[in-house]
From TrEMBL, chain A:
It is found in: Cell membrane; Membrane. Its main location: membrane. The chain crosses the membrane at residues 27-45, 57-80. Keywords: Cell membrane, Membrane, NAD, Quinone, Translocase, Transmembrane, Transmembrane helix, Transport, Ubiquinone. Its EC number is 7.1.1.-. The keyword Translocase applies. This is NADH-quinone oxidoreductase subunit K. Belongs to the complex I subunit 4L family. NDH-1 shuttles electrons from NADH, via FMN and iron-sulfur (Fe-S) centers, to quinones in the respiratory chain. The immediate electron acceptor for the enzyme in this species is believed to be a menaquinone. Couples the redox reaction to proton translocation (for every two electrons transferred, four hydrogen ions are translocated across the cytoplasmic membrane), and thus conserves the redox energy in a proton gradient. It comes from Meiothermus ruber (strain ATCC 35948 / DSM 1279 / VKM B-1258 / 21). It catalyses: a quinone + NADH + 5 H(+)(in) = a quinol + NAD(+) + 4 H(+)(out).
């Protein structure tokens, strides 16, 4: 139970960080935090209900998170090389 | 009554003339074209006469439109009209051979002239109302083409257009009448309608409405008040046109239509009263306006208007055969009057202003004789044709009400006055112009001789019963129109009426003869100025109807553009909405992320709360 | 043979478009063959129901069949289309590719009238738009882009509700397929019918055109090529009355009943409104555009009366006005060829130089304003008889247009042909134009004097429609 609260807390910290950080890396980090918070909540649910499917999903999440980090960091490096900045506010070319 | 193909042949003959002269007119030399047209009309005359003497004829093509046959019917009524149209029409065709000599559009003229006869025959012979309507609008077309014959002059084109449009107002009445009769009785054949109306079983008010619609049509075609404004301007056409169409035949079509529908009109007090009123107004309006005109053709045109009013009064008081009788007599003396005027115009090289005429009796003896007889007939001098038919109208008017008789007597006085004025200004006194008048060629004189004979003699077929001489025309026509009970006036009253109108006519003619030779007094000049303008009817219509209508057209035109702009506005509304939504595309990652999170919260909340 | 008649124009048009060296003669031959087929089909018509019917499954799982057939109305309109296309490709002074587009459009039009499956009807209905837009785009006037926007948007946006309604009609009605025969056996009722009819109505009101959705028409005609060919094809595309008659009303009679009062009013008002403001039109294209709206208003009035007379009148008037309307546009094209302008003023007095053209114009004009004896009258008369039974007042309102029509037509005509002749001489009709004149006048007279030829087949259709509403005709 307490782990659910912990995961909620982690999620909020991650959300706060995602919204307030300007640097791409820090934003990314916050998003990872949210992801892990979700994983944590899944584990605690698994402990609470005794279901094993949740733990399997967590394994999936970890694997996918890793892949996504690799791609995402690669993107950020490429952008940095191009634009000399990782400030999210200045990366606005995808506007409508 | 036989079903025969010969009946449509009477229409086909002049129609053939229209087609041949229309297509090949340029290749047909001058008098030949005119003679071709005239002989075709004469052919129709004899053919029609033959069929009439055999007791009539009919012809029909069933289901021309669903439930509506294309049917023609020659009975005594349409027979008389046919005789007049083709007989007098033939004479005017021949006269026109001379009158139109030298005109570059010679063949075209006769082509249209034949078209008119064909259309008029369709109108007369039609038994099915849509067929009558074909002829009805057909004569309107011919009239348009002929009034605007010299269309290079703007005023001629305008007059033709005006005639057509005003006629169309009446035509709408005809159309509505057809709509109403169809919905009431499920048929538009006059012969069937007669039976159904007699059978009863419908609302009398609705039938009155149908009669009213027909009346509107008749008012337009016969130039009654208030749709009379086109007739004076129609004088822009060549004189034969004025003689044939706007005196003898087309304008009487309205009267004919009403007489054909006597079975609807009789016993209807409202309609009778309305028709009498309109007839009276027109009779006086025409007479008064004629007394103020300076153009010889306009003088005569207004007299036609007035006489048409007489015919309407006849219809209104239930004297249906008399109205037709008057059509016959009027055809003769009015055509004669027009053609005599035309001869004078021709003699003076185109002059139409009577102020530059006068003294023609010395230069044009034959034409003068024509004019004299025309004047007497038109003025209602006994025993010429115009007297007997006018007298019959007066007699029936007396039955309707002595006040009506009195007003009609006044109108006859005016008729005598305008007739003698025409005569005096054109033929009497000294010649006031500078031309060298020459008498018309034989081809123009002979038709007038014949018409003159008719103006003298044709009245004798309709003498009043008190004169011990058989009245031929009344039983002849009544057989076709229908028997409507009619109280004969006592012998003494009848004689008093006859003598009164005879004396009054003589007196008026004599007084007018003296009056119009002098210089006009001031009150007459004031009256004249107003009469010349038709008592400002045209100006009134322009202000009240024509100009507002044109203004409305402009307004609606701009309004329609606005309508389109309105739709375009709807489109830009969508565009505006689009640009509003596009503001969400900020390109800012944090904004998108925030949106995601908000949405997430909302979704989860919704899921939890359910 | 119906399939040949239907698809030949498209194939010929495509061929001609790709090989313009085949020339105008090829187009004329194709159009003549199409007309001959239409006439032959008409001659072979038994008089009952839908003839030459054929259907093959197209998407049977969804109930879509390639189904065609022709009844009396369809045959009349096939002949009208065939005639107009022939006259158009014969007489219009246009590049060969333009003729090809006209031919392609012909198939679309023929398909609209022949389709017996609702989805195919819709497909033809929409597809016909493409050549029309192309004609406007490639050969139109200076502001054609705006006209294209308006025309395309009105048509397309209007058609979307119809598409929705089409599905509603099938699936809510419970029919097994989109075939006409199946759909008619399962008419919609109640609220669904009312809304579905509205869906059809929006699209078809644009296509009639019915006031107030006529607003696209003036710019469409103004911007089209001055030869009049695209305008003639556009006039043929005014299929609203037909589609309402064939599809909308029989499939949703209750829906129609709900809207009938409003529709009668819009038709009558539009007829008078358009005729009135035509008087102010500054050029012939605009005048003819509004004249067309007026005629279609009268036709719509007849159809909306829901009785035999009105329906017969509406369909006959539709066929007649397609012919004289298109011919009038082509005629104006002939005038343009000589004067280089479509404006009504200044006064040109052309009759002195071109008397034959003047007479032709007179015939066309008189047919247009409904002179009895010419093709415009029988339809108008039947509409009058039908509409009067339903609403005398609206009939009166609509038929005031006959007065207005005389006013606008004769005034414009007078300026162009009568009054003082212009100094510069222009040639009168050549042989080709004489042929055009002869055929046109002949058809005007035939349809005006012998309407029985067609009305005998329209009458049962009118009675069938009246039967939907209780049979009283």
């Amino acid at each position: 139970m307490i782990w659910l609260v912990a995961s909620a807390l982690l999620f909020s910290i991650g959300a706060y960080g995602a919204l307030t950080r300007r640097t791409a890396i820090l934003m990314f980090l916050s998003i990872e935090l949210m992801l892990n918070a979700a994983a944590l909540s899944l584990i605690s649910f698994s402990k609470l209900t005794g279901s094993l499917e949740a733990q399997v999903v967590v394994l999936f999440i970890i694997a996918i998170a890793a892949a996504e980090v690799a791609v995402g960091l690669g993107l950020i490096v490429a952008i940095f090389r191009r634009r000399e900045t990782t400030s999210v506010d200045e990366l606005r070319q995808l506007r409508g | 009554m036989q079903e025969t193909f010969l009946l449509p042949l009477t229409i086909a003959l002049p129609l053939l003339g229209f087609v041949l002269l229309g297509l090949f007119g340029k290749r047909i030399a001058e008098p030949a074209a005119g003679w071709l047209a005239s002989l075709l009309v004469l052919g129709s005359f004899f053919l029609g006469l033959a069929l009439l003497l055999q007791g009539g004829a009919s012809w029909a093509l069933p289901d021309w439109l669903p439930g509506i046959p294309f049917s023609l019917h020659l009975d005594n009524l349409s027979g008389v009209m046919l005789m007049v149209v083709t007989g007098v029409g033939f004479l005017i065709h021949v006269w026109a051979i001379g009158y139109m000599h030298g005109d570059p559009g010679y063949s075209r003229f006769f082509s249209y002239f034949n078209l008119f006869i064909a259309a008029m025959l369709v109108l007369i012979l039609g038994d099915s109302l849509p067929v009558v309507f074909i002829g009805w609008e057909g004569v309107g077309l011919a009239s348009y083409l002929l009034i605007g014959f010299w269309y290079h002059e703007r005023v001629n084109a305008d007059s033709a257009r005006k005639a057509f449009i005003v006629n169309r107002i009446g035509d709408l009445g005809f159309l509505l009448a057809m709509g109403l009769l169809w919905s009431m009785f499920g048929t538009l054949s006059i012969s069937e309608l007669v039976e159904k109306v007699e059978a009863g079983g419908y609302s009398f008010t609705t039938l009155t409405l149908a009669g009213f619609f027909l009346l509107v049509g008749a008012i337009g075609k016969s130039a009654q008040v208030p749709l009379m404004v086109w007739l004076p301007d129609a004088m822009a056409g060549p004189t034969p046109v004025s003689a044939l169409i706007h005196a003898a035949t087309m304008v009487t079509a309205g009267v004919y239509l009403l007489v054909r529908h006597a079975f609807i009109l009789h016993d209807d007090g409202f309609l009778s009263g309305l028709i009498v009123t309109i007839g009276l107004l027109t009779a006086f309006y025409g007479a008064l306006c004629s007394l103020g005109q300076w153009d010889i053709k306009r003088i005569v045109a207004y007299t036609t208007l007035s006489q048409l009013g007489f015919m309407f009064v006849a219809v209104g008081v239930g004297a249906y055969w008399v109205a037709i009788f008057h059509i016959v007599t009027h055809a003769f003396f009015k055509a004669l009057m027009f053609m005599t005027s035309g001869s004078v115009i021709h003699a003076l090289g185109g002059e139409q202003d009577v102020r530059k005429m006068g003294g023609m009796r010395k230069y044009l003896p034959a034409t003068h004789l024509h004019g004299l007889i025309a004047t007497f007939a038109s003025g209602g001098l006994v025993p010429l044709a115009g007297f007997w038919s006018k007298d019959a109208i007066l007699a029936y008017s007396f039955e309707y009400g002595p006040w009506l008789w009195f007003l009609m007597l006044l109108a006859s006085v005016l008729a005598a006055l305008y007739s003698i004025r025409w005569y005096v200004l054109v033929f009497w006194g000294e010649y006031r112009g500078k031309e060298h008048p020459h008498e018309s060629p034989a081809v123009m004189l002979w038709p007038n001789h014949i018409l003159m004979g008719g103006a003298i003699g044709v009245g004798f077929m309709g003498l009043p019963y008190v004169i011990d001489y058989k009245n031929f025309i009344e039983p002849f026509l009544t057989k076709a129109i229908g028997e409507f009970p009619h109280e004969k006036l006592p012998v003494l009253t009848e004689w008093v009426l006859i003598l009164t109108s005879a004396v009054v006519a003589i007196a008026a003619l004599w007084w007018g003869f003296r009056f119009f030779q002098q210089k006009m007094p001031a009150w007459y000049e004031r009256f004249q100025a107003a009469a010349l303008q038709g008592f400002y009817a045209d100006a009134l219509y322009n202000t009240l109807l024509v100009n507002p209508a044109k203004g409305l057209a402009e307004l609606l035109f701009e309004g329609d553009k606005g309508l389109l702009a309105g739709f375009a506005g709807l489109g830009s509304l969508v565009g505006g909405l689009g640009s509003l939504l596009a503001r969400l595309e900020t390109g800012s990652l944090r904004f998108y992320l925030a949106g995601l999170l908000v949405a997430l919260v909302l979704l989860v909340g919704w899921g939890v709360l359910r | 043979m119906i399939h040949v008649g239907l698809w030949l124009p498209l194939l010929a048009g495509l061929l001609l478009f790709m090989l313009p060296s085949l020339g105008r003669t090829f187009a004329i031959v194709s159009a003549a063959v199409s007309l001959a087929i239409a006439v032959a089909l008409f001659a072979g018509y038994g008089g009952q129901g839908v003839a030459y019917a054929s259907q093959t499954p197209f998407l049977p799982e969804v109930g879509v069949y390639y189904a065609v057939g022709l009844d009396g109305a369809g045959l009349l309109l096939w002949i009208a289309v065939g005639l107009v296309v022939l006259l158009g490709v014969w007489i219009a002074e246009v590049p060969v590719r333009f003729l090809a587009l006209a031919l392609m459009m012909q198939t679309g039009l023929l398909g609209i009238f022949a389709a017996q499956d609702l989805i195919f009807f819709y497909a033809f209905f929409e597809a016909t738009l493409i050549p029309a837009l192309l004609m406007l785009w490639f050969y139109g006037g200076a502001e054609r882009l705006k006209a294209i926007y308006i025309f395309a948007l009105f048509t397309l946006v209007g058609s979307l509700p119809m598409l929705a309604a089409i599905f509603a009609v099938r699936y809510l009605g419970g029919a097994e397929s989109f075939l006409y025969t199946d759909l008619v056996a399962h008419p919609l009722t109640g609220q669904a019918a009312v809304l579905a009819f509205l869906g059809f109505l929006v699209a078809l009101a644009v296509k009639t055109p019915l006031f107030p959705l006529h607003a696209w028409l003036p710019s469409f005609h103004q911007q089209n090529h001055p030869s009049g060919l695209a305008d003639a094809m556009g006039t043929l595309y005014k299929v609203g009355v037909f589609a309402l008659f064939k599809w909308a009303i029989p499939l949703m009679p209750e829906g129609f009943k709900e809207w009938q009062g409003l529709l009668l009013f819009l038709a009558a008002f539009g007829a008078l409104y358009a005729a009135w403001l035509a008087f102010s039109a500054p050029d012939w294209k605009t005048l003819l555009a509004y004249a067309g709206v007026s005629h279609m208003g009268v036709a719509a009035l007849g159809l909306f009366s829901g009785n035999m007379e009105g329906t017969v009148g509406a369909l006959y008037l539709l066929g007649a006005s397609m012919i004289y309307g298109s011919a009038m546009f082509l005629f104006v094209g002939l005038v343009y060829k000589r004067t280089g302008s479509l404006d009504i003023l200044p006064v040109r007095g052309l009759a002195r130089h071109t008397p034959a053209l003047y007479v032709l114009g007179m015939f066309l004009l008189m047919a247009m304003i409904g002179l009895p004896g010419l093709s415009g009258f029988p339809g108008e008369l039947m509409v009058l008889l039908g509409a009067y039974k339903v609403s005398p007042w609206l009939t009166f309102l609509a038929f005031l247009a006959v007065i207005a029509a005389a006013a606008y037509a004769l005034t414009a005509f007078q300026k162009l042909f009568q009054e003082t002749p212009q100094a510069q001489a222009v040639p009168d009709m050549d042989t080709r134009e004489w042929g055009f004149a002869a055929v046109t006048v002949g058809v005007l007279l035939l349809m005006g004097l012998y309407p029985k030829l067609f009305t005998v087949y329209l009458e049962p259709l009118g009675k069938a429609l009246a039967a939907l509403f209780g049979g009283a005709s």
